[in-house]
Records
---
Amino acid sequence: MNNNEICNTKVEVASGINLNEKDYTNTLLSCLKEMARNYTIAMTEASNESLYDVYKHIFDNIISLQREVYQLMFRKGWYVLEKSGVNKINDKFNTLNTEYNDLDK
């Protein structure tokens, strides 16, 4: 681990052709992210409030599961975050702020 990463000690898993716990968990996380995207679209296109409420309830469950899986992967050291310095954050803010202001033109 270098000083620019935020992570836990990595739990080693078997390597090779067979799937391991990390592979299954990573696949599950990817599926949950895709499902969340799809339910977001479904909610924005719901034809009535009752249908929207059903989609929203399912969406809330999916994003809760997604968060739990992410936290599990982070605890096991399978998900590494990058530290961002103040300059990088300010640069991103300025870029997004410029793009936002350009929307008014």
Note: The CA atoms of residues 7 and 41 lie 32 Å apart.
---
Amino acid sequence: MNTLSYKTVSANSNTVDKNWLLVDAKGFPLGRTASAVASLLRGKHKPNFTPHVDCGDNVIVINAEKLILTGQKWKQKQYIRHTGYPGGQRILTAEQVHKKNSTRLVEKAIKGMLPKNKLGSELFRNLRVYSGDQHQQEAQNPTIINLNDLL
């Protein structure tokens, strides 16, 4: 048997094939959408996935304002931040964050599912989130991805 056929191929920045993908999030739950998009950003759907390399695709998420949260999450889910000063803890509900910026919920959910290191920051830069159904990456000819196939 030829042992050369058993070599493990490890991707690097020169051999990675990055595509543009378009995800329509209308009517899908936030967490399920975020996990599917994080997997696409990471490149886990590709056969040459390498954990320490950015081998994922560039992802465009449209209709972020039309995502759904089940149960009482609009009022009960809290986003906590701190200003850095004593007594500076600020708490916003999902409803308040959505009113302020409808793309922020999706961005925070996806960012939380990426690695917490330099690679995660690099992967997050490959994400574009838009609240409506119009986006600015028409020139890249993104491939439309159906979330029902991924979930």
Note: Residues 18-150 form a domain with the Ribosomal Protein L13p; Chain: A; fold (CATH 3.90.1180.10).
